[in-house]
Specification:
Strand content: 5-15%
Keywords: Magnesium, Metal-binding, Transferase
Oligomer: single chain
GO molecular function, one term: poly(A) RNA polymerase activity
Distance between the termini: 63 Å
CATH topology of the largest domain: Poly(a)-polymerase, middle domain
InterPro entries: MTPAP-like_central, NT_sf, PAP_assoc
Helix content: 40-55%
Shape: globular
Cofactor: Mg(2+); Mn(2+)
Structural class: alpha+beta
CATH class of the largest domain: Mainly Alpha
GO biological process, one term: RNA 3'-end processing
Number of helices: 13
CATH architecture of the largest domain: Orthogonal Bundle
Length: 375
Amino acid sequence: MANSPKSPPLDPFERVMVTHVGAEITNRIFARIANYKNHHPVEMNALDRTITQHFNNIIAPRHEFELKERIRQRLIECAKKVFQFGTLVTVGSTAQLLCERGGDLDLCLCVADDKGDFTQDIVERRELLEDFHAWLTVNRPVDMLCFSRYIQATVPIVRLALNEDYNDMDVDITCNAVKVFYTNHLIQHYIMLDKRVQKLIMAVKSWARRNGVLDSQHGKLNSFTLTMMVIHYMQCVVSPPILPNLTELFPSVFLPEKVPLDNLPLVHGFCIPQNLNMAENDLTLGELFLGFIMYYAEYEWGRYAIYVRLGKRVQRETQLESERDTGEMYIEEPFEHYNTMRTMRNPFVRKDIQDQFQAIVDGLREEKLDLAGLI
């Protein structure tokens, strides 16, 4: 009996559950970078070194993570005096392993009800924060806390100013934002999969901050959006892909409906196999940085939305009705499913952002760019 024909092997993108943006885009971007590198190898090597040196200079050292953990534990003791089932969980850049040296600490006050649920009612969450702030005001731990204040905002917070024994650190506390834990858990794993991810994100954010691109207070990009943009780029643009679609490959590790909050590791830990059998990609940090810039310089924001959760870009006209948004850019939050750039409505702001990306592309073409000075 003749052997049945074997199925053709999956391509490197299908194997890790992501969708390639297309060979035409990837080949065009990296052919230009390869050509530039052939003519300017010294400058490209300098860019690689600059990104690594910048990362080493800016990333928070271990002792700062340890200090933040001591602060968290001390504040948990305070929370327990107000709420029987209260605790505090690290969130934000510290939890995502993206905290800069001397950075602030973001915490989430988690208070379960008698059924073990965390209320999502905005009024109830505000009242819980107000109760915690009132206790801190009356019972201020003077050995660490200078003052606290309650800030009424779309997402209310309690802000603490610590004393010099705690590096004069600011601590922002939200309440019961439990879906953020899943987002932090996912980003941690993407960062730990490949050492280039963390360095590239930090380099992109530094460049974006210097050039007015990372400036959410003026309607431009926020830090979380840039992180999602880098992950999408390393999933769907570079070839072979550097990052897989973790939520599709390991739903029992990352999806809220598959893993209860009680089972979610809230301390950094790797919860998936170390070897995902991904095709090797040897692009350098400098090549990855320039590829990121080139990709988003020509990105069609009016046509495509970015979905890290799905491992692909999606035509905006085909989005689900519940996900459609008229904002100038669309980058999905992977667990709460909202547009992280939903407040951007001004096309001139979006154009100004994209012009900053295009300026680097133009500088490369004209060979008038100081690569080492970009970061």
